[in-house]
């Protein structure tokens, strides 16, 4: 469980072109328009509990999906495939088990692989949730100009690629939280300060972009002072 696997990158699509307009969702739409979506939601939550993992590990499980699995089956489709990744990571199920079971349910006669010996992470959170109290002083203050670092490290991160190398302004100093980059891989909580950073749209998306301000929450490790 400590091996760091790279994300495929499909989840980090912010700022990319070619996706067309975002659809307008019916505000009266049911939470789960189709019955299977509610089941996928429940299976994802149960997979986190059963595999001994956490929300950041689940996000990383979804981010590692290929383009087809991440997009074609919609929002809860990726939840379902993410849950499968978690169960494979912890050896709760064997590779090929889901496909074999699906084939047999459909009337086939496929030998299902035996259940492996689980390898849950030897890891427990220090407290519930992700907010933590820390003694370290803040590196940045409200109103300060900061630059999002360019980071190409393997594994999970919440630093969007379209913010990397771009300069913004600290708008809000948020509470400290566990760092997803290490938490997703069961290395350490590495709790640190979080900042809401405001970016000009033209700084992010070039001078011809629509004029607006984008606010995003960034961990202290993601930032450096802008000269």
Short description:
The chain is an alpha+beta fold.
Verbal overview:
The chain has 227 residues and is an alpha+beta fold. It folds into two domains: 1-120, Cyclin A, domain 1 (Orthogonal Bundle); 131-225, SH3 type barrels (Roll). The protein contains seven helices and six strands; from the N terminus they run αααααβββαβαββ. Strands 1, 2, 3, 4, 5 and 6 form a six-stranded antiparallel beta sheet that branches. Helix 1 packs parallel to helix 4 (74-89) and helix 2 packs across helix 4. The radius of gyration is 20 Å and the shape is globular.
Offer a few descriptive terms.
227 residues; Cyclin A, domain 1; SH3 type barrels; 29% helix; single chain; globular; 2 domains; alpha+beta
Average pLDDT, rounded to a whole number, is 93
Question: What share of the residues does DSSP label as strand, in percent?
Answer: 15-25%
Overall strand count? 6
- CATH fold annotation of the largest domain: Cyclin A, domain 1
CATH class of the largest domain: Mainly Alpha
Largest sheet: 6 strands, antiparallel
Question: What kind of assembly state do the chains in view correspond to?
Answer: single chain
The CATH architecture of the largest domain comes to: Orthogonal Bundle
Query: What's the CATH superfamily of the largest domain, by name?
Result: Nitrile hydratase, beta subunit
Number of helices: 7
| Helix vs. strand class | alpha+beta
Q: How helical, in percent, are the residues? A: 25-40%
Which series of helices and strands comes N to C? HHHHHEEEHEHEE
Low-pLDDT parts are none
Q: What's the domain count?
A: 2
